[in-house]
Design goal:
four-stranded mixed beta sheet, alpha+beta
Amino acid sequence: SLLIHWWNDHKRNLPWKQTSDPYHVWVSEIILQQTRVKQGLKYYARFLEAFPDIASLATASEESVLKAWEGLGYYNRARNMQVTAKHILQKYGGQFPYEYAQILALKGIGPYTAAAIASFSFGKPYAVVDGNVLRIASRILGIEKDISKKSTVDQIQDFVGNAIQHALPAEFNQAIMDFGSLVCVPARPACETCIMSEYCVAYQLGKTADIPFKKKKQPLKNRYFHFFDLHLPNNKTILVQRSTGDIWARLFTLPLIETQDALVPGEAERREKLISMFEDEFAEAVRIETLGKSSQVLSHQKIHGFFYKLTLNQLNIVKKNDLYLVEREKVSKFAFPKIISTYLWETGRKED
């Protein structure tokens, strides 16, 4: 009751909160899994403009879906969405299933997203449990155990699952997520003005800085990529499509060399690697320039990128299937990982 009363005066005005369309709810929830709300707003609008319904997403090319997702990262989310859209189109005639178990069975949808769709779109009493909810509940209950453990998550799931039975499901889930985003935040929560402080064990014991507890992650693995921006005659360049089994599967990058450390390979080594990459002797390089470096942090890795501009008189026919000879004005049509798209923006190679 306290939560709903607070929410009626403090609810966030977000576009996906104004609809019960399960497709729109689904798109918003997948985007927000690894994305801040402010950033997610533009991607939500852009994605729905490109794919306004399940049928349009199901029948689109994978390249166009990845392009619409460019910049969000974790591209398997987009791939899984398209697989699910095709499944819904084939099995349910393009209508989103409304039973929680059916929603949960869809590829790329876990308990949190299934609960969000079931409650927001169909009024089913399933509580969402994300980082916000784990934090709120662990503080209220004074749980000092690791919140990444299944037993802790199950305890919190039971707690909020019982609470949602006494409210309208959509209102309860929106309220608890907004409360975690605005009041019970990770650092410096607004405990002095919090409506829950009287009932919050963590606050009463002075442990809000220690709860929730989560075991520290393993340190990131560092990888060093040396990207070559090839300038060829007739205003062309070369792009590489990444293979599966590693990061950025099926996305495009500039041709690259990976090294074991941050030391920049010498010119002879760079030339030898490039010859091996293209399976051919290319004409002499007119100019090789070092352009700078950038980085991108992934879930378990940090990519250190070094960029070089390589101007060639000519390049013989490319023989590998993963290499694409591309007109430079068409580069913007390809889907890139963030480190490459950022480089292309900064060098003025992409359209606004």
